[in-house]
Write a structure and sequence with these properties.
Strand 2, helix 2 and strand 3 form a beta-alpha-beta unit. By secondary structure, this protein is α/β, with parallel strands linked by helices. A 9-stranded mixed beta sheet has the order 7-6-5-8-4-1-2-3-9, sandwiched between helices. A 5-stranded parallel beta sheet has the order 11-10-12-13-14. The protein folds into 2 domains: about 150 residues, HUPs (Rossmann fold), CATH 3.40.50.620; about 120 residues, TPP-binding domain (Rossmann fold, 3-Layer(aba) Sandwich), CATH 3.40.50.1220. The protein starts with about 25 loop residues before the first strand and ends with a helix. It is built from 10 helices and 14 strands. Helix 6 packs across helix 10.
Length: about 325
């Protein structure tokens, strides 16, 4: 259902403007109707109330399926001016939650500064009560949780994959308008698509994962993982790994998929030599397609796969590299 309204904010001191009267709210920036990773989790943490900014916002809000969404087309609005224009709209919201996506991480500090409130970045949980906000922050590459209590309103960035989204619903969509004042601000020259080989795992739509079965008993782990990265890049995918490889130092912790690593939710996940321990599969989200390459037809990873290839993972990787022309 779509309803109509007008909210105009021109300056932080414009207290005559309407405000969104909820205690907690997610702020999501869409691009051409596409939601960022973590948008559904941020909306759930905010109780299903969300403000969608950017382009194609009505389409994005409909896809998100939140119980209530405010949408505002802000194409061409510079970040500092936009954050100031949002102050009258958001001044009464005690907890603002942004997904820790690229746009969310960029915009959250500006919004916190404009509202003159603390920014609590990289959180896994944010709870609001009558007296204040309790936020759990992830530190030391997700090895440490720090609980923070604030008695004043806060802005939070939420790690993707740390909670379940709300069930989709056909909620209310409320269009609003903002007057963004011109001034000295950052100018966007170009939006560069991420390099699949280096992009954040949590934002990847295609992921190729490496497990112990890919590198075992050869002694050239770095070479094999480098080959996997090049094959994945040719397939438009980024690479991840199990905790075994991360603990051994063969990949960085930022490449570890799992409940103690990075949570992902790709369209496609291809697992090379991954047995499928619960710690690993617990971080996979709900991929639309899963391919498992493993010599064990009964391993959990193959059991959950749409396509299971019972063969040596390393041999198949080398054959795939030959066919794609990426062998060194």
């Amino acid at each position: 259902m779509t309803t109509h309204g007008r909210v105009v904010g021109s300056s932080p001191g414009d207290h005559g403007s309407l405000a969104i009267e909820v205690s907690r709210l997610a702020v999501v920036i869409a691009r051409n109707g596409q939601l960022p990773v973590g948008a559904a989790e941020a909306a759930a943490e905010a109780g299903g109330r969300v403000l969608v900014l950017g382009s194609g916002t009505t389409t994005a809000a409909t896809e998100l399926g939140a119980p209530r969404a405010w949408v505002c087309e802000t194409v061409g609005a510079a970040p500092a001016g936009l954050s100031l224009a949002l102050v009258p709209l958001l001044r009464d919201v005690r907890l603002l939650v942004l997904p820790a996506s690229a746009d969310g991480r960029d915009f959250a500090p500006r919004l916190a500064a404009a509202l003159d409130r603390p920014l609590l970045a990289v959180a896994t949980r944010a709870e609001l009560d009558d007296e204040g906000v309790t936020v759990v922050l992830s530190r030391l590459e997700s090895r440490l949780d720090v609980e923070v209590r604030s008695l004043e309103p806060v802005v939070v960035t939420l790690l993707p994959g740390c909670r379940s989204p709300l069930p989709a619903s056909s909620g209310e969509v409320v269009p609003v308008e903002l007057d963004v004042a011109p001034g000295v601000d950052a100018e966007r020259l170009e939006v560069i698509e991420p390099d699949p080989a280096r992009m954040d795992l949590a934002e990847a739509t295609r992921v190729v994962g490496a497990g112990a079965g890919l590198v075992a008993q050869h002694g050239d782990e770095k070479d094999v993982l480098d080959l996997l990265t090049r094959v994945a890049a040719r397939l438009g995918a980024t690479t991840g790994a199990t905790r075994v490889l991360s603990d051994a130092g063969w990949v960085g912790h930022e490449r570890q998929i799992g409940t103690t690593g990075v949570g992902i939710d790709p369209e496609l996940y291809v697992a090379f030599g991954v047995a499928g321990a619960s710690q690993h599969t617990g971080g996979l989200g709900a991929p639309r397609h899963v391919v498992s390459v493993n010599t064990d037809p009964s391993c959990p990873m193959t059991a959950m796969a749409d396509l299971g290839l019972v063969t040596d993972a390393r041999a198949l990787l080398e054959e795939l590299a030959d066919r794609l022309g990426v062998r060194s």
